[in-house]
Amino acid sequence: MKIFKISVLLVALSCGVTSNVWAQNKAAKRPNIVIIISDDHAFQAIGAYGNTMKPTPNIDRIAKEGVLFNKGYVTNSICGPSRAVILTGKYSHKNGFKDNENSHFDGSQDSFIKQLKVSGYSTAWIGKWHLESQPQGFDYWQILPGQGHYYNPDFQMMDGTKKRTEGYVSDIVEDVSENWLDNRDKEKPFCLVIGHKATHRTWIPDTQDMGKFDDVTFPLPHNFYDAYKNREAAKVQDMSISETMVMGYDLKVFKDEAAANKEGTISRMNAEQRKKFDDYYLPIAADFKARNLKGKELTEWKFQRYMRDYLSTAVSLDRNIGRTLDYLDKNNLTENTIVIYMSDQGFYLGEHGWFDKRFIYEESFRTPMVMRYPGVVKPGTVSNDLVMNLDIAPTMLDAAGVAIPKDEQGQSFLPLLKDKKAKGRDAIYYHYYENGEHAVSPHFGVRTKRYKLVRFYKRVRSWELYDLQKDPNEMHNLYGQKKYEKITAQMKLELNKLTDQYDDQDAKKILAED
Ligand code: SGN
Ligand code: CA
């Protein structure tokens, strides 16, 4: 009997069977990972976060089957920097990618993707990347150069070629992702990042979704006409719907056909796409021109058009998130796959009169973030812990059973989800650097559960303090008020502590000058 067993083992070994069985067992235990990262998608535009129009049934499905993070934040609210933080688990001053204007991601540094790959995962990044340098640590990548285009986008391929693909960008990013999943090495667990361009400016929906919200009149946020009293940085920004948002480029009301043809994405459309685009937008433009709007009427007209395009673009995006979930269902992958949906940061939908992001104020500091992790996260969980995009890398390594490198600055949020008694952060740290387009002054700051302290230090030099409990919309800067001296001092201590903890030398220098 014994001899028989040994001989079976020998035969198995010689055929390589045992190593396959071993790989499969290991793969079964380690979850697959799908991270869907969209661009500029505001939590205010998501059903699960309270949008009553319910434009995102598929994102809502992830939340329902997993966890909704109510307090998900980013460390630096802008595209490239956020992706660099997600990859490395380190703040911008450590991973080197501080802003979209002067930075170039050093791909030779460590990332959670590289760690997963070494530990036996198949890895891929498909879609928006925006880190300038070529992706490293992926078995496969196919990326949109820079911001990419909504229609018939070019992709940068691994072999150095550029490939134009006909269609709508969110559909194509999903097609390529499913194709990679079909052809992946099925012996291994996988980690796939799906990088969507939507809902980035200039918010162009798939033709089938144009006009989806034309019957809706969106309520103006109550601080739409913010006068920025006592808030210098907010006063000097260039991201308002009234001043910055343009009729042609942003809202597709062009002077004439020649002007439309000059716009990148529109000029790329094929005849069929262009006809549908014109059928929808030309009557809107004609109506607008006939009205001759001015002042507040004009601004509010712009706001309604902005909201309609933005939400329709989100519908086109969400449909493709649904396709990812369907793919996992159809291929029996749902039970053993973590799915995360998040944006690279939040976005303003008219709050303070704005579009865009960058500020430490809640709408852009926060990011939507939902995660499904069958067997680990109870469906319908709502998390109110302070978590960050900084935590994605260590959390994914934790889930995969890979040691988290000591120099990662985030922390796994799995303990918070597994154990009700686990304690999360008391405070989170933010640092925004870019000092160009949209004129948002560089700043850093700290947010606790109740208060926020901000130091603007370049375009504008000033402090701001908010009581988020009394003033969740951050309209009343309390800095300098006698009544808040004690809280200010406590918050400054917290800020000093965090700049030490994260070793942010630039911020420490500025604090030392104060
Ligand atoms: C572009 C946009 C800005 C936007 C940045 C950063 N201008 O420069 O409005 O803030 O991207 O966006 S546009 O004229 O090109 O639309 S990010 O997503 O990369 O952070
Ligand atoms: Ca972005």
UniProtKB/TrEMBL annotation:
Residues 1-23 form the signal peptide. It holds the Pfam family SGSH_C. InterPro entries: Alkaline_phosphatase_core_sf, SGSH_C, Sulfatase_CS. One of its GO terms (molecular function) is hydrolase activity. The keyword Glycosyltransferase does not apply. SUPFAM superfamilies: Alkaline phosphatase-like. This is Arylsulfatase A. It comes from Flavobacterium granuli. The lineage of its organism: Bacteria, Pseudomonadati, Bacteroidota, Flavobacteriia, Flavobacteriales.
